[in-house]
Structure formats: C-alpha cells, structure tokens
C-alpha cells in the first residue's frame, strides 16, 4: 500500500516568496491498483510524482510504501529521456538492478530485457541509437525500461502526451498488458479524463494550486477498455453533468475550478 | 475492447503499430480526428516530433540507416584522398621552394628524409623522441585529469566557479614562457619542473572546455538516474560522463597539439635531452636540415597519435551523434 500524506509543498516564486503547490494532499494506492491523477494545468500533478519518485524530497509530509519510502520504482516521464549514447537494449539494461550483481544475473537480465523489448515490438532495433527511432518507438523503450525491474510502484507523468491517437492507444494497450502481468501499483498523471477512465481502477481529481484531492472516483468498468467505448463515454458524460466546474477546468486548463467539490467517493456510475 | 466502433479501430491500430517504426506515426491516420478514442488525443495534432530526446539531431531513422552509413563511408574515402592530395601538394611546394632557395636555408625534402634515416639508424632520433614523448604523455595526462576534475567542479558549483574564475583568467593569459622560467627558478632544472610548467599552461584551457560541458549536462537525464536509484558511480560513469565526452575529446585534441609545442620550449630552455634540446643544438650550428628532420619526425608521431588513437576513439565514443 502506497500512502501519500503531503501537508505542504512550496516553491519559491520569481520574487522569492513561497508558492504553495500542494496542500493537504492525501492519497492511498493499494497494491496492484491503477490510479490516475487528473487536474488542471499547474495543479501540481508532476510535483506529486516527483515527490513520490524521490526526485523532490523538500516538503512537509511523508510518503511510504509498506512502511518505508518507495525505492522499488519505475518512472516514465513525459519525454522518453533515453540516454542518446546507449543502444535501445543498453538503455533498458542501465536501470536493471540484478544485472549488476554477477555475470550469470547479467545474462539473465539481458535475456529478460530482450524479451520485454520484443514484447514491445522493438526486437529489430535492439542495437539502434535512440536518435534513429521514431517518437512512438522511444516511448516503447521508456516503457520497457520502466518494467524491466518489475517494480512495486510505477510512476507515469503524462507518458503518452503528444503522440498521435493510434500510437498512444497501442502504447496504452502495452502498458495495461505489462501492468496486469507484473501487478505493480500505478500512479498515472494525465490531464486527459478519457484516458484516465480507460486506464484506471480509480481516478483522483486534484484542485487547482495548491493541489489536493477533491474527488476520488472508482472506475468499475470491465477490462479491456477503450476510451471510445459507450461505457467510458457514458461515465464521462455523467461526470460532466455532475461536476461541470471540475471538468470545465480540465478541458480548458483553467485553474480554480475544483475547490467547490467535496472530497468523497463519487457514486456517478 | 468492445463494440462495433472498436472493431473498426483495432486493425487501424495494428497497422499503425507496424508502420510506426521509422517516422510513420506522424502520417495521417485512417481514424481521423472524429474517431479518436481519447479526449486529448482527439485534439492533439498528428506527428510526434515533440518527444525527441536530448541530442537527437539525426535526420535518418532505422529504415534509412544503411543508405546513410554507406554515404558516410563514401564521404570518408573522399576525405582520405583529399588529405593525401593536400600532403602531396605541400611536399611539392617545399621542393619547388628548395630549388630556388639556398640549400642550407631550405634543404630539399629528400635531403631531410635522408637525415631522418641517418638519425634513426644512429638511434639518436628515437632516443630524443622517446624522452620528449614521455614528457608529453605525462604532462598531457596530468593536465587532462586536473583540468577535467576542476572543470566539472566549476561547472557544477557556481560558488566554486565564482571563486576560481579570476585564477582561470590569469592562467589563460600568463605567457607559457613565464610559467616555464618560474617553474625552473622555483623547482630547479629537472623533469618535474618541466612537466609542471607544461601542465600549468594547458590546465586552464581544459578547465574552460570541460566547464562548458558540465554546464550543458542535461539535468533531466540525471533525474532518470535518481528515479531508478542508480548508484553514484553508475550515474557518474554512465549518465554524467558520456555527456562530457565531446568536450573532453575537444580538450584532448587541442591539448595534444599545444602540449607538444610547449614541451619543446621547455626542453630548449632547461633540459639536456629531448627533441627541444636537439633543436637548440642544431640552431647553434645553423643546421636547418637537422631542425627540419627532428621537427618532421616529431610531427609525424603526433599525427599518428591523432589519426590512429584520438580520432578513432572519438568516433567510437561519439558515434551516436553521427
């Protein structure tokens, strides 16, 4: 169980005054649960992931997974962030933990990385430089890298943004396949509500800055799902009707729309 | 996936997933915008150039790779011929000049070559060459190591940079001759003073180059290392240092040519063996053939090091940028 209790997270603004990015943000993710976090631009979604991922530890509060700060983590950023001087395979092996222990482990890890990359349809480009790949292929390498250690916790920061729809769909399918196989807890940040409804077991809505959870919505749709399916569409429309101010803020990137919604499990379905 | 609409979508997804390999994802989708299943995706423009990684400047993708690498090979062959032609033109010009000048002032290329052979057979040239190369190697290694460490530190910590910046400007502007004289006066006429003088002359330029590299290190890639809990050693060796390699190679290549020139001056002023010392002897006797023989022999060695060691090393380490 991942427990996030962020009392306060501040940044200095341009004038050096503290700007409160997150305040009173409490969120739990059960083992193997897929939780999407949505919210308007600037509400602190990426900040939240950076805190949970250990990239930013300067905050009041605590983040624990089974009693300790989460260390067994896979992280997929908005951009693929591959090491351009390493081959596709080496990029995945770079983060592989057991591979560094001994030669036998390294060989096994290599086999696993190759199998994973083949599952991502990258078997033909194992030795290619990242700069020679298309954007979608780079994201698939980043996805393989995130899963190579079969982490307990997977953090994803709008990983499929700016991809064309079919490519993004295929990547989402691959993500769900790998997640179901390894059973990681997933915290997936997106500003796209339909994407969240198609992927998540639960969707948490953040208010505008200072961000906190204002709506915690279980999504009980059967899998596999598609964002264009009538069930997802019905849920989307129901949410739109029930919380127009919240979704209006998401759609328009406005800030300051979510504070009116109470923090409670929703019965929209 | 459920529903009639999804059934129509799926083949399209499969098709695109195969076609997306090299640069196809930016192509028009048969689904168009209307059928786009994800909210933001529907509004997003097609194409995905946004996600290019740092350093990804290549114009060709996997599918075009073979053709472009064949083109690169052909260009390298052409370059090799151009280099040879350039060398031939230089020798020809020299020969023509020698025909018009006094043979003592400008001996012909063949005369110099004969002298190189004589000096090599007598082992005088190899002996002096070895001594000088040894000094070059030690001074080069010391300058690169110290310069790279200081450059990385100054690129990383702003306060350190502010503190040492004035020293750096001083180091860059002190004439080599002054450093050499001072080192000999302070530490005596010995090898360590000579090597120290050479290293001191080179270190500031290495610092400046490497500091630029350290400032250009991509923090987003370091975040990847932190997110995946890579050790400090792995982060330094496999994430940080590779970003500095182009800068280190630039410092090494310019450093080698600078260092061997300064080593000759150091030897001329205060050593009793080495190519610089021999040049001084030849100068006393106005032996231009000897001066050219030693100079050419040493330049040839440096060219070999550059062509067979540094350039292949650079190609190997920075091949991903091609």
Model description:
The complex is a heterodimer of chains A (269) and B (322). Chain A has eight helices and nine strands. With 269 residues, chain A is of the alpha/beta class. The relative contact order of chain A is 0.18. Chain A is globular and about 50 Å long. Chain A has helices at 45-52, 88-94, 103-119, 135-147, 165-182, 193-199, 230-242, 244-252, and strands at 2-12, 18-29, 34-38, 60-65, 73-76, 153-157, 185-190, 202-206, 213-218. Helices cover 76% and strands 0% of the residues of chain B. Chain B is built from twelve helices and no strands. The longest helix of chain B has 39 residues, at 232-270. Chains A and B meet through β5, α4, α5, α6 and α7 of A and α1, α2, α9 and α10 of B.
Question: Could you give the distance between the termini of chain A?
Answer: 25 Å
Main structural class of chain B: mainly alpha
Strand percentage of chain B, roughly? Answer: under 5%
Q: For this entry, what is the oligomeric state of its chains?
A: heterodimer
Number of helices of chain A: 8
Largest β sheet strand count, sense and barrel closure of chain A:
6 strands, mixed
* Class based on secondary structure composition and strand pairing of chain A: alpha/beta
The number of strands of chain B is 0
Give the SSE order of chain A as H and E letters: EEEHEEHHHEHEHEEHH
Shape of chain B: globular
What's the arrangement of strands in the largest beta sheet of chain A?
5-6-7-3-8-9
* Helical residue percent band of chain A: 25-40%
Largest contact between chains: A-B, 63 and 65 residues
Note the total helix count of chain B. 12
Outline the low-pLDDT stretches of chain B. Answer: 1-60
Helix content range of chain B: over 70%
């Amino acid at each position: 169980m991942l427990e996030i209790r962020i009392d306060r997270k501040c940044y200095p603004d341009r004038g050096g005054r503290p700007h409160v990015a997150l305040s009173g943000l409490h969120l739990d993710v059960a083992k193997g649960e897929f939780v999407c976090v949505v919210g308007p631009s600037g509400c602190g979604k990426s900040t939240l992931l950076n805190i949970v991922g250990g990239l930013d530890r300067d905050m009041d509060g605590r983040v624990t997974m089974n009693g300790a700060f989460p260390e067994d983590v896979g992280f997929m950023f908005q951009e693929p962030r591959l090491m351009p001087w390493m081959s596709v395979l080496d990029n995945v092996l770079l983060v592989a933990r057991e591979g560094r222990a001994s030669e036998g482990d390294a060989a096994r890890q290599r086999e696993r990385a190759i199998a994973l990359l083949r599952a991502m349809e990258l078997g033909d480009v194992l030795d290619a430089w990242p700069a020679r790949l298309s954007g979608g292929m780079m994201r698939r390498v980043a996805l393989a890298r995130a899963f190579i250690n079969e982490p307990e916790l997977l953090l994803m920061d709008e990983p499929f943004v700016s991809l064309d729809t079919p490519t993004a769909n295929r990547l989402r399918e691959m993500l769900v396949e790998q997640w179901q196989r390894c059973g990681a807890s997933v915290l997936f940040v997106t500003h796209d509500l339909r994407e969240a409804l198609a992927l998540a077991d639960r969707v948490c809505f953040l208010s505008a800055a200072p961000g906190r959870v204002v709506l915690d919505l279980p999504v009980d749709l059967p899998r596999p799902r598609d964002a264009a399916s009538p069930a997802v569409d019905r849920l989307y429309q129901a949410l739109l009707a029930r919380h127009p101010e919240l979704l209006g803020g998401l759609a328009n990137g406005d800030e300051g729309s979510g504070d009116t919604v109470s923090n409670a499990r929703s019965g929209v379905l | 996936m459920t529903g009639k609409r999804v059934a129509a979508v799926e083949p399209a997804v499969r098709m695109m997933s195969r076609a997306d390999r090299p640069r196809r994802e930016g192509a028009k989708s048969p689904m168009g915008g209307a059928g786009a299943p994800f909210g933001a995706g529907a509004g997003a423009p097609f194409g995905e150039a946004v996600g290019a990684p740092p350093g990804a400047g290549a114009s060709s993708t996997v599918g075009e790779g073979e053709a472009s690498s064949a083109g690169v090979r052909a260009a390298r062959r052409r370059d090799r011929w151009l280099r040879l032609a350039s060398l031939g033109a230089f020798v020809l010009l020299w020969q023509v000049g020698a025909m018009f000048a006094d043979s003592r002032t400008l001996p012909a290329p063949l005369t110099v070559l004969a002298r190189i052979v004589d000096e090599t057979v007598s082992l005088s040239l190899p002996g002096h060459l070895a001594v000088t190369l040894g000094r070059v190697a030690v001074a080069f290694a010391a300058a690169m190591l110290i310069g790279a460490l200081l450059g990385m530190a100054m690129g990383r910590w702003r306060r350190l940079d502010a503190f040492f910046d004035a020293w750096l400007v001083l180091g860059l502007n002190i004439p080599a001759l002054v450093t050499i004289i001072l080192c000999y006066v302070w530490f005596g006429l010995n090898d360590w003073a000579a090597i120290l003088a050479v290293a001191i002359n080179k270190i500031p330029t290495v610092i400046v180059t490497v500091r630029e590299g350290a400032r250009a290190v991509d923090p987003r890639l370091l975040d990847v290392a932190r997110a995946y809990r890579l050790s400090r050693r792995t982060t330094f060796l496999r994430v940080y240092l590779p970003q500095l390699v182009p800068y280190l190679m630039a410092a090494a290549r310019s450093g080698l040519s600078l260092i061997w020139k300064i080593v000759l001056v150091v030897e001329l002023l205060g050593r009793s063996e080495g190519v610089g010392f021999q040049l001084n002897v030849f100068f006393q006797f106005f032996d231009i053939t000897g001066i050219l023989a030693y100079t050419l022999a040493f330049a040839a060695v440096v060219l070999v090091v550059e062509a067979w060691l540094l350039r292949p090393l650079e190609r190997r380490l920075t091949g991903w940028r091609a």
